[in-house]
Amino acid sequence: MVRALLSFGVILLAASISCAQGSAPTDQAEQVKLLLERIQQLERRVTDLEARQAPASAMAISTAKENPVPSQNPQQQNPPPAAQTHEHEVREQAATVQQMEQHYPSLQIRGFGDVDFAATDQKGTNSGFNLGQLDLHLASALSRKVTYFAEMTFNAQPTGYTVEVERNIIRYDYNDYFKISFGRYHTPIGYWNTAFHHGAWLQTTISRPDMVRIGGTFIPVHFVGFLAEGNIPSGGAGLSYNVGVGNGRGEIISRPGDAGDNNNNRAWVANIYSRPRALYGLQMGASVYRDKINLMGRDFREWITGAHLVWTKETPEFLAEFVNVNHRQVLTDIATNSQAFYVQLGYRLPWFERTVKPYYRFEYTHTPLSEQVFTNQDLVGSILGARYDISNYAAFKAEYRYTKREIANPWVNGFFLQTAFTF
Amino acid sequence: MNATKKRVAVVLLGLTFILQSFGASSIAQTARSSADIAVVVHPETPVSDLSLAEVRQVLLGERQYWNSKLPVVLLIRAPVARERDVVLRVIYQMTEAQFKQYWVAKIFRAEAASPPKIVYSNDMQYELISGIPGAIGFMDARNIRPGLKVLRVDGHLPGDKDYPLH
Predict the structure, then answer these.
(1) A residues 291-350 near B, CB within 8 Å?
(2) Domain that holds residue B20
(3) Which CATH superfamily, name and number, covers A100-422?
(4) ipTM of this model?
């Protein structure tokens, strides 16, 4: 009995040891991998240090040969090795930190570009290629709390190129709750206008929705003035705001009055949005814009209200935005309301290394016949397309569009291609 | 003689039990601590406990200041490092390509002046975090050295059962 118990114990002990050894390989393999990585890092570091020290020591040797110094006590010449090493480490650490610390001003330039092809069955139009916008973006930290941003576009025209200053902003950050800036912005109405700007590479689709089209009039795309923005202490609700005062629409209502306001009335805008912490990827918000427009001697009060709901992840991507534009003529008190909305859905496919994203967008714009500030912008249309990311910084897009402008016009089929990139 | 054998057998059984339980727990512990990625900050940073959502807010550039005098300095390991993989997978929930695009877009929207600084080794990360006030980085829990402050994430430290970054 005792012998059997003893044998059982020995077997169990052997089994436990072998079991422990048997479960080790995966862990050991990981350890070995990590150690190898570490060794490689250290080897690289030693090589770098040797490379850095080589010219210095060579110079020291040559200097020593040219100017021989009287021999001294070796103990006086060389400080203790431990102290020398420590001093060296401290110096090295300080150098690394200095190298990586922000230097002012620190200008960064990034460019965006696109080349497009369009073919439609609309009468009077030609198919063919066209150069999209060449877009340059500049960002420069001027100090820990002051930053400058600018965006310029070069636009192909029949007679040459036009250059446009799209954004020109200087911002002071007090903290996360209050940042104030002055300059020319994309008006913070809704989502798209401040999320994608001019670089076509940033957006999934080839074009912007018609309601926020660059050069369009439905909403004032640009805004000149000042803007306060920041987070609102709101716990899990993740609230943020933008509040701004500026010139509002200019005499050409698609432009913001860069050179000065055309009346003594300032426009103001307020935008509040939430990014709930528990639902990472979700953003929802509401915007209000108020202005007084002077158009050929007639004054109009403009109220723009908007709301958006977006899911910014790509599996799926969901963007939806609605805007109502109210114009009231001051003299007659006649009011009109125009509405526009779009819904866009995309999905990054799990295959082809997640490089392909098909998408669909429906958009709708309605302007009443009595609208006096801008011309009829009625539109209903669908876009079906796919985006293929050629690399991390370049994409190819193909789109089919089926759209109708105004009631009297026929439906138009269109096929569009774009290669968009950043550099 | 029999009594001696009995004693030896009992001791052997006890030893076996102890070895097994110790072995299992140490293996589990090793596996867990080796997998955990610590959130480390400059020692003077005025936080010690953040929720995972708050860490995400910092890494997304939505929180850019620890307080009005101390800006956040984001550090992230270069591609292929395990720390970066964990940060992208658990916190950003993005692929490498999405991460790069996110920061290009962030700067383009004038929401940030620069992307996170890239660090190439733990040594470099240690030097930067201990040298730059407001710096935050991610480090394998086994490589943590004195002079860094390890943050609790959702109330847990690396090695804890429910620690989320691994």
Answers:
(1) 313-314
(2) 1-35
(3) Porin (2.40.160.10)
(4) 0.77
